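Quick question, first post here. What does this chain look like in 3D?
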Amino acid sequence: MDSRRVIVTGGAGFIGSHLIERLVAAGERVLVVDDVSTGSWTNLANLEGHPALERVESTVSGWAGLDAAVSGAKAVFHLAAAVGVELVVNAPRQTIETNLRETEAVLDAASQARTPVVFTSTSEVYGKSDKPWFSEEDDLLIGPPTLSRWSYACSKLLDEFLALACHAERGVPIVIGRLFNIVGPRQSGRHGMVLPRFAAAARAGHPLRVFGDGRQTRCLCHVDDCVEALLRLWKCPAAVGQIVNIGHDEEVTILRLAEMVIEECGTDSTIERVPYEAAYRSGFQDMPRRRPDLRKLESLTGFRPQASAQEVVRRVVRISPG
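> Answer (accepted):
Ran it through. Tokens below.
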């Protein structure tokens, strides 16, 4: 087996930690780089002291060893980014600078030896489109810059342009995965993620706060399915230079999601509807639906995420908090 390491940026986050477990289980040596601003080393507790895992606590751009490590790496999974609706709305400058700076650093380092990069983008880049599902070739409709809510989408979209430019101009093997509402163990609700927030409230018998009228829909993808898709795309030569949706295509309203969590927990929690203006700054805009077209993922990898919304809720609710 190739003795070079796989680098995972943002690997102390909830998705990154599951990815690292899969990589190590497959016999890979892994180097994780994370400043633990939103992640936690406790997410990698199952691999504490494992000889195949090395960790660096730093931002990607601030790590002096980045160029040498990436040049000698087998691949880079770039997951490091600003995360969470609350952070995006309340700290738009930090969101923009983090996303652009860290991605630029990874791509510059990867360009030296044309190290393969799997970059995780977001369904947020589709913006305010009202299409029944989102395809990778769709035009994008982003909200106005006067609303900080769109800073995350724009910065991640610019990351995509930068990644594809590095592929076209420098020959860097790039695959971009646009993630749709990935959920599962270790995801925290402290940055606004809806399912862990609902689960924590229901366990405590508190009201579940549903923003707006609750009719907005989301498609929940279990983190295990997400990781499987990322690993298959890494190993797929035809995926190089491509943008690929990763998610489940079963829609559920936020109101129904709250009801499912309460049912699964078996508590007496109620549902409290909260106007967006009371939860976020005035002028917050939400997407009414966010459903991925998965035909490209299936065509390239032969894989479609498997866990249904009911199964995802069951698996998340039954794990211990945190």
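The longest helix spans residues 92-113.
The chain has a mean pLDDT of 93.
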